[in-house]
Structures
1.
Amino acid sequence: MTLLKATKLSKVFGGLRAVSNFSLEIQPGELVGLIGPNGAGKTTAFNLLTGVYEPTSGEIEFDGKSVVGLKPYQITQRGIARTFQNIRLFANLSVLDNVKIAYHFHVKYGLVESVLRMGRYHKEEEEIRQKAIQFLKIFQLEDKKDEIAKNLPYGEQRRLEIARALAAQPKLLLLDEPAAGMNPQETHQLMDMIRWIREKFDLTILLIEHDMSLVMGVCERIYVLDYGSIIAHGTPAEIKNNPRVIEAYLGEEVH
Ligand SMILES: Nc1ncnc2c1ncn2[C@@H]1O[C@H](COP(=O)(O)OP(=O)(O)OP(=O)(O)O)[C@@H](O)[C@H]1O
């Protein structure tokens, strides 16, 4: 069954059609890229898929059910987690607490339930702590668990953001420019990590990225946005040679 199906999505801001007739289908387990020149509407598309914006028109089905009109936290609970182009961590909390929060969020109890569960509270806290530490190990951040998130170098903050998104136990992970600000070596490690987490967590991944070597290297299929509309989709080889894509990038090299 298709995991994510967006049909003819549009988003209008004032007079500007930021996303227009955007359709996309992702099957479970796929690793798909969304590319396009600056201002093409990529982040707006992510914001529609994650409930930050409601579409002006169109439909989004996740796991067979409509998610249009749901709040971002409800969409996370349905199984879509994301990272942001401009990293959004709890800057003044520790690295460990940033990941623990995602667990608390996933295991959200009502007040009565919390009181009834009080006896088990400490045990659960410890379990959450252990699970969070496991995630930090995967992302080679265990040694930094007590550091304040904002003091981490940029590449590590990006890794922490991915760790936190994964702690929400999503089926679909949306990564908005995960390699932004990374050097070539960090980008290379990130590519390996993306492939690895997909296998390890049985994930489906959709990523926005400007770094063509990353997109072409890890994605099995790519959608190309230009002025809010999908102008091409296909395998990396098909996209590289597509004249409309080359024209949209106006001489920017697609290699
Ligand atoms: N909240 C908003 N209000 C008004 N216009 C917006 C809003 N969000 C995005 N836009 C506009 O919609 C268009 C698409 O922007 P978007 O950020 O989605 O593009 P993008 O492809 O992610 O760009 P970039 O690669 O530069 O991040 C742009 O013209 C942008 O100015």
2.
Amino acid sequence: MTNAIETRGLTKRYGARTVVDGLDLDVPEGVVAGLIGPNGAGKTTTLRMLLGLVRPDAGTGSVGGLPLTDPVAYLPRVGALIESPAFYPGLSGERNLAVQAALAGTDPAGIPALLERVGLGGRGRGPYQSYSLGMKQRLGIAAALLGDPALVVLDEPANGLDPAGIRDLRGIVRSIHDEGRTVLVSSHLLAEVQQVCDWLVVIGDGRRLYQGPARDLLAGGGDLEERYLAMFTKERS
Ligand SMILES: Nc1ncnc2c1ncn2[C@@H]1O[C@H](COP(=O)(O)OP(=O)(O)OP(=O)(O)O)[C@@H](O)[C@H]1O
């Protein structure tokens, strides 16, 4: 199986603190991979390194088979939602996506369908500044799907979504997977992760505690929350 993402010894330090510590990641092509771990475990920092937003202090890796040191080469095939996406407040959701498509040199023709897909069909022409938190998040998800990304990286995509929004997000992630794309999603919503992810990476204190098929982690019975909490209780004891 080819890996969509591979890292060896990926490390990031801030001052004296090592926040990502020798991470070996293997995310196979075509999976929905969940990246989980406690607050401050290093999830966002890891995603930022994969997206070329933060420079690793050590380690090697590749995204889509291209070296991590050359994000300009692989980023055109990667869609991402990370932290609060930057949109122009006075422009509509639709215009914002058009601006992003123009910057990325991608075809804007699919934007109305994309807005429908994330549940913003009726509000795509309203100004971004009038959007609720959940609507902003939905627009961020739409932006991550612009172009034809082989890999979609979503950092806490459920942030700000209400229960219906979370259910919609589940459907969107499944449809991205059905299109043959790889998804890497970080989340604290373990029940959601258990429902949509077939590959799991668990990190604590910047180190990898588990990586592999979700079914292997869950094979002993119990749900993901139980497995996860047991892992961290063990780590602390
Ligand atoms: N620019 C920075 N400067 C200094 N420390 C940072 C910086 N970015 C992240 N950190 C620290 O790195 C550690 C890991 O942060 P990161 O945001 O990657 O964790 P996380 O697993 O995404 O956490 P959460 O679940 O709370 O979002 C934290 O202790 C954080 O304070």
